[in-house]
Design a protein that fits this description.
The structure holds two protein chains of two kinds.
Chain A: H1 2-9, H2 12-25, H3 27-49, H4 63-66, H5 73-80, H6 83-115, H7 119-130, H8 137-148, H9 154-161, H10 173-201, H11 205-213, H12 218-242, H13 250-256, H14 262-265, H15 268-278, H16 282-309
Helix pairs in contact in A: 5-16, 6-10, 6-12, 7-10, 10-12, 12-16, 15-16
Chain B: H1 6-38, H2 41-47, H3 59-67, H4 70-99, H5 107-119, H6 124-133, H7 151-162, H8 166-174, H9 179-190, H10 192-208, H11 211-216, H12 225-233, H13 241-245, H14 252-287
Helix pairs in contact in B: 1-14, 3-14, 4-7, 4-10, 4-12, 8-9, 10-14, 12-14
Classes of the chains: A mainly alpha, B mainly alpha.
Chain lengths: 315, 289
């Protein structure tokens, strides 16, 4: 309180002088920080200002400022468009499936690994299951071509040799979502398990010994010791994942989608790319991007608030 | 551990079997890709499914290296990964250092300014228009400059700097070291584990990303490896695998698989060295991201 009064009492010119003095005193620090501030201002905040385009009928020749305003027309066009429900549904359904299966798979792997007491075996399994995480989606798609391609893919060769009709997995809409979700699990199961393994390692082993003395079965030990032991991490990860429910995985879907299976796996992000950059419906695509960004922002804030109640906030 | 009951022994074996199965599931696709890429077309026609080839040919690889601009793509990817990562790490570290100082006036508004970009963004189209008006389209620098600093990595490094004991740096300052000297001589050596982790995150990101090149680059001379692989897999390359394969003894499929191998091998080679650091990294990032 006193400090504040003292600051207010200083005349304006002096205040400015102290401001300059602060900068001089920490000039090296501010100089180190400056490139980052410029970077974020230019590459993150200028595009945020570009959101104006969402409310304009953007014309390449006129530019952002001189294009005519259209209010919320782009948004209403989007909501009323025939594609709206399709891409919303695809985005949310794929995201939810990924949440359901992609989230539980690493926990299961961690629980299984936790049962293994042969260190070298555990290490080898971990090393192998992390590996796919480091591959790009292009490479993962390449592996899927190897297994699933209509002519020479391994599965189709097996199908043919056993007298079945080959299936074009990569273009059949019915297979689209399954491939997207299965490949996501395949790619990240080992990586996702790391955190849970660390949490499992933190559980006091004497709890298990005591439980075994009391004759608790494996199942009861899992239920009463293991799961409560990693509950915090599970809840935190779940909350974090929920905040990205509209991010169904752009890099992946962009690679997997083709004109045939698009109806089942086209998501908001891929749609924005096509409409905006391929069909040049700039205003509309920007509006859809903004729609997604706003929902994402609200979800992240909500998730952070929820996470605070558990294991500390996210940032 | 010492005395297992029969039930526990059965359970243990089930666990081992599942884990072995999972590991095979992760490995087998690679083995199949390699097998296909080195099997001569004639053997495929004769035997059908080839998991272990009887004879080898490197014709598919020859095709890939002769005519797909793979070398040029490798150059671009190496440029992007090496120069990009170096710049990423440099700019991230020099920004994280002042932000880790609680006494620095304006620290929290600057931090908020940066962290906010993790939660909200202008989206693809406004970013594209910005890049276009900066004249970065069709330049290899577009693969580096727009991704100069990851706010997430910045926050991780900042967090690490904060929990270093302040006394060491203070005593250096008393001895007359400047801020830059104490960053270079004291903070950096102490932070090597986290900095190498972050470098690896950046490097793998550069190696694997393909979408920015697709959006911002038309010139096929500047296409990174992942984009070339993508084109070959989707058969949209100007000199598609098919036209090559028509020339003789290798199938389109073999050429595609050879390209997958060529793109994957560098990751497989460095992977054992990276793995240790990455494990640390994911834990680090999760504790206080």
């Amino acid at each position: 309180m006193q400090v504040k009064l003292a600051v207010e009492a200083i005349p304006l010119s002096k205040k400015r002088k102290s401001w300059i003095r602060t900068i001089q005193k920490y000039k090296v620090m501010y100089a180190l920080l400056l490139p980052a501030l410029i970077y974020f201002a230019v590459f993150k905040y200028i595009p945020m200002a570009g959101i104006l385009i969402a409310f304009k009928n953007y014309n390449l020749a006129l530019g952002v400022w001189d294009s005519p305003w259209v209010g919320f027309k782009n948004f209403t066009d989007f909501m009323n468009g025939v594609y709206f429900w399709d891409i919303m549904k695809n985005t949310i359904v794929i995201s939810l499936y990924k949440l359901l299966f992609g989230f539980s798979a690493p926990i299961l792997l961690a629980l299984l690994l936790n049962e293994v007491h042969t260190q070298w075996f555990k290490k080898i399994v971990q090393t192998i299951t992390y590996l796919p995480h480091f591959l790009s989606w292009v490479i993962v798609y390449g592996l899927m071509v190897a297994l699933l391609a209509p002519g020479d893919g391994l599965f189709n060769m097996i199908l043919k040799e056993s007298g079945f009709q080959p299936i074009s997995f990569l273009t059949e809409p019915a297979w689209g979502r399954l491939l997207v979700i299965a490949s996501e699990i395949w790619k990240d199961i080992g990586w996702g398990a790391i955190l849970y393994l660390a949490a499992l390692a933190g559980i006091d082993p004497s709890l298990y010994e005591a439980a075994r003395m009391d004759g608790a079965s494996k199942w009861r030990q899992l239920w009463h010791i293991t799961l409560p032991g990693i509950r915090g991490v599970i809840i935190l990860m779940l909350i974090l994942k929920l905040s990205h429910i509209l991010d169904a995985g752009f890099d992946q879907i962009f690679m997997f989608a083709n004109t045939f299976n698009q109806e089942k796996i086209d998501i908001i992000d891929t749609w924005v790319y096509r409409e905006g950059l391929e069909r040049l419906k700039i205003g509309l695509a920007t509006a859809v991007g903004l729609f997604k960004a706003v929902i994402g922002f609200v979800l992240v804030l909500a998730a952070n608030k929820l996470a605070k109640k558990f294991d500390g906030q996210i940032w | 551990m010492i005395h297992l009951t029969i039930g526990e022994k059965v359970w243990q074996s089930v666990v081992y079997v599942i884990l072995i199965f999972l590991s095979l599931l992760c490995l087998l696709p690679f083995l199949y890709v390699v097998a296909v890429s080195v099997t001569p077309e004639s053997e495929v026609l004769r035997r059908g499914i080839v998991i272990i080839p009887e004879s080898f040919t490197f014709l598919a690889y020859k095709e890939v290296f002769i005519s797909h601009g793979i070398w040029q793509a490798y150059k671009i990817t190496l440029f992007r990964t090496i120069i990009g990562t170096a710049l990423n790490v440099f700019f991230t570290v020099i920004a994280a250092y002042p932000l880790s100082k609680k006494y620095l006036p304006g620290r929290s508004p600057f931090l908020l300014f940066i962290v906010f970009t993790m939660m909200f963004s202008g989206g693809l189209i406004p970013t594209y228009l910005l890049i276009r008006s900066l004249g970065l389209l069709n330049s290899p620098w577009v693969l580096i400059i727009p991704n100069l600093i990851s706010a997430f990595n910045l926050v991780i490094i900042k967090g690490f700097f904060e929990q270093l004991p302040g006394e060491i740096e203070e005593s250096a300052r008393v001895d007359g070291a400047s801020e830059l000297q104490s960053l270079w001589r004291i903070i950096l050596p102490l932070s090597l584990p986290v900095i190498s982790t972050i470098s690896l995150f950046y490097a793998v990101g550069h190696w694997n990303s393909y979408f920015d090149a697709i959006v911002y680059i038309n010139d096929s001379n500047f296409m990174p490896l992942q984009v070339v692989l993508r084109n070959i897999l989707l058969n949209v390359a100007t000199q598609s695998a098919e036209s090559l394969a028509n020339s003789g003894a290798v199938s389109t499929f073999a050429v595609q698989m050879a390209t997958v191998v060529v793109t994957t091998v560098p990751i497989l080679i460095v992977y054992p060295f990276l793995q240790k650091h990455f494990t640390k990294g994911v834990l680090l990032g999760s504790v206080k991201g």
